[in-house]
Design a protein that fits this description.
With 70 residues, the protein is mainly alpha-helical. It has one domain. Helix content is 69%, strand content 0%. The longest helix is centred in the C-terminal third of the chain and has 15 residues.
Length: 70
């Protein structure tokens, strides 16, 4: 396996560290965050939208977002 060294500023490192799960390498974390649709993370970033939708609308939004990512 080939390895590359990257530099992160302190803020980027702390944000990545928060996303890292127990037993997961930083490489695994980056791959997980960049290759899988993460609807909950998406909605968290756009929290206002989540607050404006009822349960049925939120469910439909998630379904459509999954389809768009695939």
């Amino acid at each position: 396996m080939t390895y590359k060294t990257i530099s992160l500023n302190s803020k980027a490192y702390q944000l990545l560290k928060k996303e890292k799960k127990d037993g997961e390498s930083f490489s695994d974390t980056i791959i997980r965050l960049t290759t899988k649709p993460n609807i909950e993370k998406f909605l968290e970033m756009f929290g206002v939208l989540k607050n404006d939708l009822d349960d049925q609308e939120l469910s439909e939004f998630k379904k459509e977002a999954h389809q768009a990512w695939n």
